[in-house]
Amino acid sequence: MKIIVSDIKVSLDTSREEALSLAIKRAGIKKENLKSFKIAKESIDARKKSDICLVYSFVLEVPSDLRFKRANVRMLEEKNEETIEYGNIKLKNRPIVIGAGPCGLYAALTLAKWGFRPIVIERGSSVENRVKKINDFWNNSKLDSECNVQFGEGGAGTFSDGKLTTRINDRRCEQVLEEFYLAGANEEILYKAKPHIGTDVLKKVVATLRNKIISLGGEVYFDSKVTNISQKDGRINGVFVNNERLIECEICIFAIGHSARDTFKMLYDSGIQFQQKPFSIGVRIEHPQEVINKAQYGEEYTHERLGAADYQLFYKSGNRTVYSFCMCPGGIVVASASEPDTIVTNGMSEYARDRANANSALVVSVEPTDFGSNHPLSGIDFQRRWEKLAYEIGGRNYKAPIQKLRDFMLNIPSTSVGKVIPSYTGGVTLANLNDCLPGYVTDAMKEGISAFDRKLKGFAMEDALLTGVETRTSSPVRITRGTSFESLSIAGLYPAGEGAGYAGGIVSAAVDGIKIAEQIIKTYSPK
């Protein structure tokens, strides 16, 4: 049988082997009776800066006749996996998955494991070619509107931090982590309280997932944009690729990501129901990573077991929420535009998280009432307005507007940078970011900054650097779907993941893809 021993608190200098010995002792068993073990969770407890500790939970396999009754020791409940059987509707064509982000990859992988031999269609390039095109944009301002930080194999998350934290509680989350580990991610993602892969590792991982799909009979088409859909009698029966090729299908998963604005419009024009959805906008804020480390860990901030510190901050300003988002310890701010003449920022960290600066989105919630229109796609126009304005203020050459925090608070343009050197992967222009965003957003940000400084010492340091603008926090739309995950407008079309408004982050998007694939398996049988 398996038991879980939790709340093993140890000093930073205690090894994992020593922590395991304490868990065995707490369980009241002899070491020779231990059949196997694994770390279930490892976290940092930094609530007392003078006594920072590591906290472990272990799963121990012990003889079934062992008896125990101790605090923080319990039987591990076996999870009952849902039984899945093939449906009785025979497919004439192979299922199609649009998009090779986490949602699309995991949907396709699940279908491939069950013999459906899916066809994955991705408008961007393979991750290997995608890196070249993105570097060309960062270094030479040559934007490829079909392959960039938003579009291409792996999705937007490939050029972020590869965070695997999620708020959803779903049995499939472990499945997602396990698959990432098998594809090359570090084993610690299986037990770290705040797991991350890192963009450098994630590039290799998504390529491995793609090759696994292909090895199971799937196909992956890159540089292939779905430009229209074909439908008959209220059901999808094919998709047009690059305005020329028709691929027939009875079922199609649209895992298109939160930035596929032209695809959203195509679907809307085809009769698919959309709803407006709230999201958030703001800027990227950079601090010296050392400042964040000291604020979070005190005198222990240099200890090798701690690494680069992160933070998560929230503040309520009237009916709006100001918060940090996609915090990247030891990372950089990256140019993330997907349309010409716009500025979009995001954050990115490698696995080591060893760069000089910490950065995070500093954003404010916006509602459909802010969009200025009742049109279902008006959130896109709202985003685009501020992205284009940032482009204008930056100098109309893909240079991002930047400003010191002190100057932002005083509403005056910056004339120089201070201690924080901008990490943005492209040119920058000193400016006034108060001119790049709505007044209600900048006012709320200023309130939030003051409140955050009380929680995290140094957050409001005068030389902290702001880079505008951050607008792609989540999808500005939701594509309505029913209990079977199908579109309410066209049968056989499955809106999926973050772009469709049903996920937020790598893990939840992947889980949504798996859930839809499972529903398809239970409804249909492969060709």
Description:
This protein has 527 residues and is α/β, with parallel strands linked by helices. The protein folds into 3 domains: 2-75, 2-Layer Sandwich (Alpha-Beta Plaits), CATH 3.30.70; 89-275 and 478-525, FAD/NAD(P)-binding domain (3-Layer(bba) Sandwich); 278-470, no CATH class. It contains 11 helices and 25 strands. It has helices at residues 16-27, 102-113, 127-140, 172-182, 199-215, 261-269, 289-297, 378-393, 405-410, 439-455, 506-523; strands spanning 2-11, 36-45, 53-61, 73-75, 89-90, 96-98, 119-121, 219-221, 226-232, 235-241, 245-248, 252-254, 274-276, 279-288, 314-317, 320-328, 332-335, 345-348, 357-366, 400-404, 428-430, 465-470, 477-479, 493-495, 524-525. A 7-stranded mixed β-sheet has the order 15-16-19-14-22-20-21. Helix 2 (102-113) packs parallel to helix 5 (199-215) and helix 2 (102-113) runs parallel beside helix 11.
